[in-house]
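Morning. Coffee machine broken again, so started the prediction first thing and wrote up yesterday's gels while waiting. Chain of 445 residues, entered below exactly as on the submission form.
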Amino acid sequence: MTKKISADDIRKSVKEEDVRFIRLAFTDINGTLKAVEVPNSQLDKVLENDVRFDGSSIDGFVRLEESDMILYPDFSTWSVLPWGDSTGGKIGCLTCSVHTTDGEPFAGDPRNNLKRVIGQMKELGFTAFDIGFEAEFHLLKLDENGNWTTQVPDHASYFDLTSNDESASCRRDIVETLESIGFEVEAAHHEVGDGQQEIDFRFDDALTTADRVQTFKMIVREIAKRHGLFATFMAKPLQGQAGNGMHTNMSLFKGSKNAFYDKNNKYHLSKTALYFLNGILEHARAITAVGNPTVNSYKRLIPGFEAPVYISWASKNRSPMVRVPSAGELNTRLEMRSADPTANPYLLLAACLSAGMAGIKEEKMPMDPVTCNLFDLSEAQLNEMGIKPLPSTLHNALKAFKKDKLIQAALGEHLTQSFIDSKELEWSQYTQTVSDWERNRYMGY
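Came back before lunch.
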């Protein structure tokens, strides 16, 4: 679980491992990892929360006249990258929360916001919101100028044994690098699509897991580059191929007990789990805007590639939005299959947790689980079962988000407005872009 690391531990590590620079990382509204790097001579300032930066140029942060921000590092996130800088010295990393100059947590920081929502969860008597992310990605070839292409380094499929290709070598290198900085990697394998990979690391509390998925993405990109490849977490990078999902496994704990487990109930789900599940389903359309935040995300949420399209749940069936995997007491969980790895993990978990807590408070049971393949049903049959579709575009998801006051409250006023502004701009730019498909289709008219 979360490591206990003190300031003295970090000072000792910097000295023993020849750490020359300290990278202070934080996340913007779009889930992009940002960083300030300082030399080790500034270590005391780092440890005393005294490193400042200009937040006015960071998406979703602040206006120019209120730009000064301070980074508060979370010591438990300390790690030393296994590669060095040009001088041979190493780089130490800390994940930070962003604060204002008067020391208050900045409301526009997605990490602070998740901590706020976790605090609301604890007021209900729960001690932990445990998360396991499964973030898929593609490895692509580079051209002679070092730019990405859509050419893949392999044509393997799900769980294929490809011990000699560059993808497998890169994947193993990623695993070894993750383990060297404290990740517990549980599995690594080839996914369904050409060049598509998955590496799963151990579940942990929500904040720790959100921090780790940001570090994970950084490590994957860096190791891929060292193998002469390009790694992308884009939801649908290759037409006609499976897209990249970020299945989100969720469970609530009270002390050491999993509040989602009840051995006497069907599927071993407690009433708490079922109420939580209903909250997720009730707010699914707005959650989709947060969990699938790009125009491209909706080219993954289509029939035929195992990605969900409908708001529903099941125990074994993989076509609905939420699945209940077979598991023992500790691992009983809800697996939300709709989100993709372009999502900001802090915002996604804040939205899911808030929806689930609302469900627990309302004490409403979810719809019946699905036992058939939803893609085989007609629209009339789906309507009869009360099953509605997920949004089909970012525009539609954003409309649902604007109507859902609970999910807006999950992000808070600052982040909600920043999110809407960012996504409306993205949609506007997309609608004004003329694609090659359109030229090929309509140029002869």
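The CA atoms of residues 24 and 198 lie 27 Å apart. Going to sketch it on the whiteboard this afternoon.
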